[in-house]
Automatic annotation (TrEMBL):
Domain FAD-binding: 5-306
Signal peptide interval: none
PANTHER family attached to this UniProt entry: DIGERANYLGERANYLGLYCEROPHOSPHOLIPID REDUCTASE (PTHR42685:SF18), GERANYLGERANYL DIPHOSPHATE REDUCTASE (PTHR42685)
Protein name in the entry: 2,3-di-O-geranylgeranylglyceryl phosphate reductase
GO MF terms held by the record: FAD binding
InterPro entries per record: Dggglyphlred_Halo, FAD-bd, FAD/NAD-bd_sf, Geranylgeranyl_reductase
Length: 415
């Protein structure tokens, strides 16, 4: 096998695979090292609910045959209320989606090596020159990309990222059949992606039902293991216990049965990114991390991060005299903050405020959403302060004071 490439990518998730697709399409020699075996891929990394939107499908040329169900609306639920927003979406079969990215990358010229666990960077003169994998095997590249997610074996050893335990989110999901998808007294979830805010089910987080056709759906929950969760959590309850509690108490699941082999577990870090690159190296996707902290959307963000990393690599590699130094690769971080997550700080603040609120405020929040027009809500979702202010009430003063106190203690720069 060749041991020298233009770009070496660790990890074949959406970020790494998209970076490889883009670079291979530009004619660069690219190799992707993936821990899992090819015949089972992505059994161990099939961790995403895979709800996304047509804009992502169109931007990255994703075919319809990886879609389980196209949806027409997004639903927000509180313990006793709900809000429906017309919004086209798509629920992907995540495993098929990941396999498609690999196949398409190969067709464009990228090389994939499965059963290849990356362990450490190879250093030369203080710069990364390649990686070791599977113990003593080596491969070299002009640029190395870490797309391994929270494991981050390269980024951590290069001191590029620091993932914080207090911002670690965990989640669990099953696929079910026999769900009462249009239960009286609840929102109609046919052709819908639903997120529920309810501390009884997901303290300091949210749960979901994503319709996948007929009486089937993806059902799960996640929460961040921080003080928001501790404030509302039940003693000794695990993430599995909360999901079982929801299944036992929600009448929509009375006749539901789990679909064999359709269980997913995952984790991600929801935090402000720090450094994302150095000489000859970039960290992308959930290694950074990249997931939207407010609603948990990750696929589009990871794909975008892979794309802007490819742009940065191309900007150096296409010029013989442009070494991929940290200075020349800074375009990656510039594009990341401009195009991938332009409002990260504001969204982190919005996330903290949302999960501080009690269940009673969630019920009132649904009324507030009905009260405001779609343009104002869109602005609020993008972090517009005036639009967000219209969602607040005098009674929210204690929440805002608690948020301010928390942020002063954790990260003054977010204010």
């Amino acid at each position: 096998m060749n041991d020298r490439y233009d770009v070496v990518i660790a990890g074949a998730g959406p970020a790494g695979a998209q970076c490889a697709r883009d670079l291979a399409a530009r004619g660069y020699d690219v190799v992707v090292l993936e821990t899992e075996s090819e015949d089972e891929f992505p059994r161990q990394s099939n961790k995403s609910t895979a709800g996304t939107f047509p804009s992502m499908m169109a931007s990255f040329g994703i075919p319809d045959d990886v879609v389980m169900q196209y949806t027409d609306s997004v639903v927000l639920e509180s313990p006793t209320n709900h809000y429906v927003q017309d919004q086209p979406g798509a629920v992907l079969e995540f495993a098929d989606f990941k396999r498609y990215l690999v196949e398409d990358g190969r067709e464009k010229g990228a090389e994939y090596r499965f059963d290849s666990r990356v362990t450490a960077p190879i250093m030369d003169g203080g710069e990364i020159a390649g990686v070791t994998y599977n113990g003593d095997e080596e491969v070299y590249g002009e640029i190395v990309v870490d797309a391994t997610g929270p494991a981050a074996p390269l980024a951590k050893k290069l001191d590029v990222v620091e993932l914080e335990r207090e911002n670690h989110a965990i989640g669990i999901e099953y696929e079910f059949e026999g769900i009462d998808i249009d239960r009286p007294g609840f929102a109609d979830l046919r052709d819908a992606m639903m997120l529920r805010l309810d501390h009884e089910i997901a303290p300091g987080g949210y749960s979901w039902i994503f319709h996948t056709g007929e009486d089937t759906a993806k059902v799960g929950l996640c929460y961040i293991q921080n003080n928001h969760h501790e404030r509302y959590a039940k003693d000794s309850y695990t993430v599995d216990d909360y999901l079982e509690h929801w299944l036992d108490t929600d009448p929509r699941f009375r006749d539901a049965e789990r679909i064999e082999g359709k269980q997913h577990r995952g984790s991600a870090h929801l935090q402000k990114p720090g450094q994302m690159h150095t000489d000859r190296f970039m960290a992308i996707g959930d290694t950074v991390p990249t997931v939207d902290p407010l609603w948990g959307e990750g696929i589009n963000k990871c794909m975008q991060s892979g794309r802007v990393a490819a742009v940065a690599a191309d900007s150096c590699l296409k010029h013989a005299d442009a070494e991929p130094t940290a200075e020349n690769l800074v375009v990656y971080e510039t594009l990341w903050h401009r195009d991938v997550a332009p409002n990260m700080n504001k969204r982190l603040l919005m996330t903290n405020l949302l999960y501080l609120a009690p269940n009673e405020r969630y019920d009132k929040f649904m009324e507030d959403l009905h009260r405001l027009d779609t343009e104002t809500l869109a602005k609020a979702n993008k972090g517009n302060p005036l639009a967000i202010a219209q969602l607040l009430e005098p009674g929210d003063a204690p929440l805002l004071a608690r948020l301010a106190k928390q942020q002063l203690g954790l990260d003054f720069n977010l204010l």
